[in-house]
Write a structure and sequence with these properties.
Order of helices and strands: HHHHHHHHHEEEHHEEEEEE
Keywords: Membrane, Transmembrane, Transmembrane helix
Structural class: alpha+beta
Strand order of the largest sheet: 2-9-8-4-5
Helix content: 40-55%
Mean pLDDT: 80
Number of helices: 11
Shape: extended
Strand content: 5-15%
Number of domains: 2
Distance between the termini: 76 Å
Radius of gyration: 31 Å
Largest sheet: 5 strands, mixed
Length: about 450
């Protein structure tokens, strides 16, 4: 059996030559026969890259959630990226497994040739059944080859589908940010934004319906006339002109179409399986927020040992404290700033610059007025208060960052006069409800004080 190699010894012809020439068709046939080697090479590099990227994406998701910025766009992008990584890893591992089986089948064929059913000495009934259902060994190899090639093509087609979804979401976010954010119905740009947004949403729904029905909207004469403008615009937005021939090649092949539809429920099942975890108790799920009976590790800064661990809303420095002080850290949240504006309207700027921005030209972003920054923190300190057990302590929160670069507000409280043992730290926040101001407990964190 000859050794496999990557030296194709292809005829000297440029890819840009006329595709109808016999030499070009011969080149494609040769590439088609030898493509499995490149498939395995690309799959290996892609699997390595995906396994490296997945933990980084998980950490980015954890950091994004810890910042509490409620940014739907980034959340969707990260969810899509994590889902795509799971699906791509599954596809490529399945491809490598089937390719390995295919290579093993080729090796076995070299040794023993085709299946000789007569030498197995089975009964006539079993022999006839196996000849019909199993068939020749060559047919088995050809079927494996079809599975491998289609799965490999689907894998990289999924990357473009993900890119298309990201571009659509990005287009919607851009329209909302440019035309609708902070604008009123008196502005002409608001109506432009509404029209563009309606076009995108309707086009997105029509494109999705056409996609899951395998081109139904293109088959009906009057529907195709309505759908064509959306189809043309979305082919540019989603860059589908780059991979559209691949899609139609799938659709005109029954085997590829069936395999594609078969993989969809598997992908849904795979995404669902990634959300599973084992619950050990009927009363606790061990990921609950801290309370008098629970101490969540995300509320203690020194217990955030994993790269993906970040402070969940509010934390103190340690569960067991021996120093005569306790550090309280409150993670920054967009809703905190909104609440500050309600209590102190003079701090609200005329233009809200929060959101996606570029580092270019934004080095001096934010207010340069130190008095406004002081008023901001003063307002924050009037909103938040800290109690240990039932005693109110004076606080002076300042802007700070954790070791993991998590933004927030921090203060230190002296506790040398409290008794040894367990204590409860309560962080409370004022809220405006109608015309009344109420105090709400944000978190209750247990800790143990044992001085040196």
């Amino acid at each position: 059996m000859s050794k496999f190699n990557l030296n194709f010894n292809l005829p000297n012809i440029k890819m840009s030559d006329d595709y109808k020439k016999p030499a070009f068709k011969k080149l494609l046939d040769r590439l088609q026969e030898e493509s499995w080697q490149l498939e395995l090479l690309i799959s290996g590099f892609a699997i390595f890259g995906l396994f490296s990227a997945y933990p980084a994406l998980e950490m980015k998701m954890a950091y994004h959630q810890s910042q509490n910025d409620n940014n739907l766009f980034f959340t969707l992008i990260l969810i899509l990226a994590l889902s795509a990584c799971s699906i791509l890893i599954f596809n490529l591992l399945l491809h490598v497994l089937l390719r390995g089986l295919w290579i093993g089948a080729l090796g076995l064929r070299y040794v023993s040739g085709d299946i000789e059913y007569d030498t197995l000495n089975y009964t006539r009934r079993f022999s006839n059944y196996l000849k019909i259902k199993v068939g020749s060994f060559d047919r088995y190899i050809a079927r494996l080859e079809d599975y491998c090639s289609i799965i490999f093509a689907i894998t990289f087609l999924l990357i473009f589908y993900l890119l298309a979804l990201v571009l659509i979401i990005g287009s919607i976010a851009t329209i909302v940010s440019v035309f609708l954010n902070g604008h009123t119905f008196r502005d002409f740009s608001t109506y432009v934004g509404i029209i563009l947004l309606a076009f995108l949403v309707i086009g997105m729904l029509l494109t999705f319906i056409d996609f899951i029905t395998l081109g139904y909207l293109k088959k009906k004469k009057w529907l195709s006339k309505v759908y064509f403008p959306f189809y043309w615009v979305f082919s540019i937005i989603t860059l589908s002109f780059l991979y559209r021939p691949l899609i139609y090649n799938f659709l005109d092949n029954k085997f590829g179409k069936r395999l594609s539809l078969f993989l969809v429920p598997i992908y849904i099942l795979l995404i669902w399986m990634t959300s599973l975890y084992y619950n050990q108790s009927n009363y606790f799920n061990f990921i609950e927020d801290s309370s008098n009976n629970i101490s969540n590790s995300l509320n203690y800064e020194d217990m955030l040992v994993e790269e993906s661990d970040f402070i969940k809303n509010i934390a103190i420095n340690s569960k067991v404290i021996s120093d005569p002080y306790v550090k309280v850290f409150i993670a920054f949240d967009k809703s905190i700033e909104d609440e500050i504006y309600r209590f102190n309207p003079s701090l609200k700027p005329e233009e809200d610059t929060r959101g996606i921005t570029s580092e270019i030209g934004s080095m001096n972003s934010g207010s340069n007025d130190s008095s406004l920054k002081s008023d901001y923190l003063t307002t924050f300190n009037t909103l938040y208060s800290v109690e240990i057990d039932s005693t109110l302590y004076k606080t002076d929160f300042v802007l700070g960052k954790t070791i993991k670069k998590q933004n927030g507000f921090e203060t230190y409280i002296g506790i040398k006069n409290i008794d040894d043992g367990k204590h409860m730290l309560h962080v409370k926040r004022k809220e405006l409800k109608a015309s009344a101001t109420i105090s709400k407990t944000e978190v209750s964190i247990p800790f143990w004080y044992y001085p040196d």
